[in-house]
Amino acid sequence: DSGVTQTPKHLITATGQRVTLRCSPRSGDLSVYWYQQSLDQGLQFLIQYYNGEERAKGNILERFSAQQFPDLHSELNLSSLELGDSALYFCASSVGGGREGNQPQHFGDGTRLSIL
Amino acid sequence: SQQGEEDPQALSIQEGENATMNCSYKTSINNLQWYRQNSGRGLVHLILIRSNEREKHSGRLRVTLDTSKKSSSLLITASRAADTASYFCATDAGSQGNLIFGKGTKLSVKP
After folding, report:
1. Distances in Å between the alpha carbon of B91 and those of B8, B12, B20, B32, B62?
2. Does A12 touch chain B if contact means CB atoms closer than 8 Å?
3. What is the average pLDDT score of chain B?
4. Between the ranges A91-100, B5-14, B95-104, where is the mean pLDDT highest?
5. What are the C-alpha distances in Å from B106 to residues A9, A43, B6?
6. Most B CBs within 10 Å: which of A105, A106, A111, as the mutation test of the B interface?
7. Nearest by CB: A56 against B42, B90, B96
8. A4 to chain B: which residues are within 8 Å by CB?
9. Using one digit for the tens of pLDDT, what is the confidence trace for B43-72?
10. Which domains does chain B show, CATH number per domain?
11. Which A residues in the span 23-82 are in contact with B, Cβ-Cβ below 8 Å?
């Protein structure tokens, strides 16, 4: 058990809809990362928050947004959903907020999003 | 773009054999990490090797890093059926210090 909790585990919705994915980081970790994993693109970094502030931004679409709350949990909001957004979305956490490649990241088990 | 590229894409071996997976990357790094992903689960961190290290061990895992060739290898000795998973390398070569993952090697260990 990584200590990172993601809800829901599965989500099925239709094109054009909006969903919110939730992540609770491991106790003591201040950084939260969001990744998208699909068969064709592999694991893509979306965004990082550190102690409530955006720290790094990757290949995140404008239709997607995220935030980290004072209790350090994070939410990823996906809107105007398209078929191509179907993927596994992972949250990971780490202790620090510097050059995060220097630290292991702890992953949740993901949310599987299916767009019909 | 993918920074790390694992090779082979898939590997099938018998229990007890050794498994070697390779990772090549393109730009200079400060460190490289290996992760394992069981089917339907999140990634699990295995080992981190810094650019000034050449070899690192953790249990049955041995990781090497050759910065001159921009490559790393992960060796799993005396493999077990439970080692069946996908293995990813990740480098800290992202423009903002973020990790960039390869597409992984799918390892199948047959009992």
Report:
1. 18, 25, 19, 5, 17
2. no
3. 92
4. B5-14
5. 23, 14, 10
6. A105
7. B96
8. 42
9. 999 999 999 999 999 999 999 999 999 999
10. 5-110 (2.60.40.10)
11. 33, 42-43, 45, 48, 55-58
